[in-house]
Amino acid sequence: MVERKADGSAGDADYGTIGRDYASFRQPEPAIEALIGRALGAARTVLNVGAGAGSYEPLDRDVTAVEPSASMRAQRPAHLSCAIDGVAESLPFPDRHFDAAMTTFSVHQWSHLDDGLREMRRVTRGPVIVLSCDPDLVRRFWLNDYAPQVLEAEARRYPALGHMRAVIGGVSETVPVPIPLMCRDGFNEAYYGRPERLLDPAARLACSAWSFVSEQTAADYVEALRADLESGAWDRKYGHVRTAPEYDGSLRLVVARR
User: Fold this and answer.
1) What is the pLDDT of residue 24?
2) Which of 56, 80, 84, 176: CA 20 to 30 A from 65?
3) Is 68 a domain residue?
């Protein structure tokens, strides 16, 4: 049985509270969309699990979205189909029903990861695609100097990529996902060259890991970052990334084929 919160959220974060402006900050990044599109190949029917507000759902395919959070389903734009209220661990579809299945920035929220991955494989004839982060690489981001407990929460919650590949089975690969400087998707590493963005509380709220530290701890982290930006200390140490065209962070795409 998957435990669900008041708005239907499943997992360890309450998107009824933190996800109200999620769609405003978590816009799909075209470069990441292109990688996902290539991984989907010729698939015409696609299942999107933990679909949220619909980021990265391909518009040129027949997409079925599953999302447990009512607040996230309500933020889906009108040009996307309505999402089914459901969880990864119990998908209401027959075996091999879809050409492909995908999930983006979602697996770390699932109550029972292995069950959800096996369900995705069960209902899918072709590739199963997971956009997530490598927990072994999360802490090398400069934000770890300012908000170590936030990145500790991220590293703790993201599942090991090798484990996911083993559970899904088949022939699989892990693809690095470069993050462009002006990335439209507002996760923590997307602001690698725009640190001022993380001073915005709404931007931080769209990154669920910030909800795992106390308000006072988060405030202390933000003030330390603000002080270094104002004094120039941040730029003296990290200013070179402000013009770096892309960042090879922890973002990875797992592609598993039968």
Assistant:
1) 77
2) 176
3) yes
